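Structure request: DMT family transporter, Streptomyces solicathayae.
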Amino acid sequence: MSSIAASVPLPAPRRAWLTDLPVLLVAVVWGASYLAAKGITTTHTVVAVLVLRFAVVLPVLVAAGWRRLRALSAAQWRGAAALGLILAGIFLLETYGVVHTSATNAGLIISLTMILTPLAEAAVTRTPPPRAFLAAAALSVAGVVMLTQGGGFTAPSAGDLLMLLAAVARTAHVLAMSRIKAVRSADSLSLTTVQLGGAVAVFAVLAALPGTGASPWAVAVGFGPREWAGLVFLSVFCTLFAFFVQMWAVRRTSPSRVSLLLGTEPLWAAATGIALAGDRPGPIGLAGAALVLAGTAWGRRAAEMA
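Returned structure:
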C-alpha cells in the first residue's frame, strides 16, 4: 500500500474534497447497509438474500474484467477462491448477526476489525504492538461491553456474538490476503470477482440444501418494492459502487486517507440505526459507542505510526 501512496501525487487541498466526497459516501452507504440488510432479511431468508445480492452484481464485474480474469494464473485462481470461502463466512456471520441485533450494535462491533487485525498480525509476526495501540484496543473492548449492555448487564445477544465472530473472520481474511503469495500480484478487480464468485457458489450450495430456509427464487417472488429497493441498495451501492470508488480513489489520493474516511463507517451505522430504526442504546450504550469510535480511531493512528 505504501508503494502506491508514494507514487500517487496528493490532490491540491482545495480539490481534495472532490476525491474525499465519494469515499465518504461509501462509508455512509456501508454504515446504512446493516439497517438495509436487517430490513429485508429474516432468519429463514439469509442465504437466499445473499445469493440474490451478489448474483446481481457478479455479471457486471465479470464483464468489466473479463480479459484480466483470463490472465490469472492457476495459483491466483486457487488463492482467490480460498479467500472467497472466507468471504462467504464473513457475509453469513454478518447477515445472521444483524438479524439478531440492532443495526447500531452491528456496525460498531464489526469496527473492532481495525483493532483485531493489527493484534493478529503482531501475533503472527511475533512483533509486540505499541503500548498506545494496546491501550486503544482495551478502550474499544470496554466500549463494546458497555454498548451491548446498554439496557443492563446481561449476556450479549446471539447477534452481538455473531458480529464479533464476523470481525474475527474479517481479520482472518485480511491476514490471508497478505500471506497468500499468489494473490499479491493479482489485479484487484479480478481478485474481487473471483472471491465474490466463490462466495456466491457457497451460498448457492447452501440454498440447495434442505433446512437452510427459503429458496432465492421464492424470496425474489415474495419481495415487494421496499425489499427490492433494499436489495438494489446492497448490491449496487454497497458492493458495486463501493468497489469502483475505492479503486478510483486510491489512484488519486493516499491509501491512508481512503482508509481514514472509510473508518467512519461505524459512526454512520450508529447514526442510521438511531435516526431511522429507533435504536436506543441508553446512556451506558451511548458512552460505549463513543469509546468504540474513539478506540478504533486511536488504534488506527497508533498502528499507522508504528
